[in-house]
Design brief:
By secondary structure, the protein is mainly alpha-helical. The protein has one domain. The protein is 71% helix and 3% strand. The protein has a two-stranded antiparallel ribbon with strand order 1-2. α3 crosses α6 and α8 packs antiparallel against α11. The radius of gyration is 21 Å and the shape is globular. The relative contact order is 0.13.
Length: 277
């Protein structure tokens, strides 16, 4: 496995575009810290975003994993480009000639997906921990390490999404078309949601059905954190509203995404196995 990972990282690091995208991705993950510097001083109105509780433990785990998950598109480009380069540069054929089996080839790509997911999760953990220690009003160990389930959800979400991108890269061969297909699939899920809601079921039933679709199931792992914020809850109570939402991850949501991950990797292997290279 170590040998397979070394091969993949050498390929990625020797590709200038991939190197730039990977570095940009981790710079953006770090940029979440810049949110702490946002201040508005307009006459008597003074607003400091860090004072609103977004970096309080344990809320920070929820907020940071939700926000940073949107940056995954940078690595999505890297993954589909990685497969496109394999075909255009004919390195995939050379790897197979050199003795790498098709199963080992897919395993090497999946190990890259897992590596990206683990490194991203550890990166978000470290950045969040530092920000929380600096800005959080609560620094007891029992509070700091509450809600770490959001990091698990973040890891599974990335792994599932990157596996989907890997599958599209193998299926379509061209990175631009693979990314286009990804956008098209997102639109398709939205259309299906609209049809189901309009013609068949109520909102709750529609949400439950859509939870089995790949992209929606990944999104569901980390719900929006904004209505959980104390300031938002306070404003809502002043106008007679109350948010009673379930913000936490459930085991069946993890299972659905892991199932899709297995399907994408297996289908990638089947396509590669049957394709004439």
């Amino acid at each position: 496995m170590k040998r397979l990972l070394q091969i993949e990282f050498i390929k990625l690091w020797n590709n200038r575009a991939s190197k730039v995208l990977i570095i940009s991705y981790f710079v953006l993950l770090t940029s979440i810290a810049l949110v702490a510097a946002i201040k508005f001083d307009i006459g008597p109105v003074k607003f400091h975003l860090a004072d609103q509780g977004i970096f309080n433990f344990p809320y920070i785990w929820h907020f940071n994993t939700f926000i940073t998950a949107f940056f995954k598109l940078f690595l999505a480009i890297v993954i589909v480009s990685m497969m496109s380069n394999e075909y255009s540069n004919k390195t995939i054929k050379q790897n197979l000639i050199d003795g790498l089996s098709k199963k080992e080839f897919i395993l090497s790509k999946f190990l890259t997906v897992i590596s990206f997911s683990i490194i991203s999760t550890l990166f978000v953990f470290v950045v969040s921990l530092i920000l929380g220690i600096i800005y959080s009003d609560f620094n007891e160990l029992s509070i700091i390490f509450t809600d770490l389930e959001f990091l698990l959800a973040f890891f599974v979400k990335l792994m599932g999404f990157f596996s989907f991108c890997l599958f599209l890269g193998i299926l379509v061969k061209r990175s631009a078309f693979a990314l286009g297909f990804l956008i098209l699939w997102q639109i398709l899920e939205g259309i299906v949601r609209g049809i189901i809601r309009w013609k068949l079921f109520d909102s709750d039933t529609t949400d439950a059905i859509m939870g089995f679709f790949p992209l929606q199931s990944m999104f569901n792992l980390i719900g929006e954190p904004f209505t959980r914020l104390g300031a938002v809850q306070s404003m809502a109570s002043q106008i007679g509203e109350k948010f009673e939402l379930d913000y936490h991850m459930h085991w069946y949501q993890i299972l659905i995404v892991l199932t899709w991950t297995a399907i994408f990797i297996y289908c990638s292997y089947i396509i590669l196995k049957k394709r004439d290279l």
